[in-house]
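Thread: "does anyone have the structure for this chain?"

Original post by V.I.:
We have the sequence but no experimental structure in hand. Need at least a predicted one for the grant figures.
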Amino acid sequence: MTVRAVTTTSARRPAAAPGRPRRGGGSPRAEQLLTRADAELVAAQFSAEPWEQFGHAHLAGLRAAAAVVAARGTPAGRGAPRTAWGMLEVVAPELADAARYFADGAALRSAVDAGRFDQVDAVRAERTLEAAEDLVDAARAVVAGAEAMERAS
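Reply from O.Q.:
Generated one for you, tokens below.
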């Protein structure tokens, strides 16, 4: 029986060996995602309502996670994680704490998206904004490091 790595992110890049990340195909996409993360942070900082601040901050974290995955490569193979947070833990273990924090907030973001605004208080919104700012900064450093390694090789 032959096991094949299946991935849906790009037909142009070959799949990696099972359980190993595929190499990112450059970083323009990562830079674009970091720019969008920055925009979400600005929106969060100027949001008047806690639920709105939380939503923008969580999306900033999601964009930052996607930038790291774009820079380092998407995990492939049977059993590879399917969420951005799971992929982030695999390709950037140094960001595992942030990945878990935002994964824990995913259900809350879904509730807010469904209109359950009372689920978020000001303290949670502020903590999420601080975590998103930290993750965006860390993601920017990871992407810059990936670019430097790609230039060196």
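V.I.: this helps a lot. Helices lie at 28-45, 50-72, 84-91, 96-104, 106-113, 122-152.
O.Q.: and The mean pLDDT is 83.
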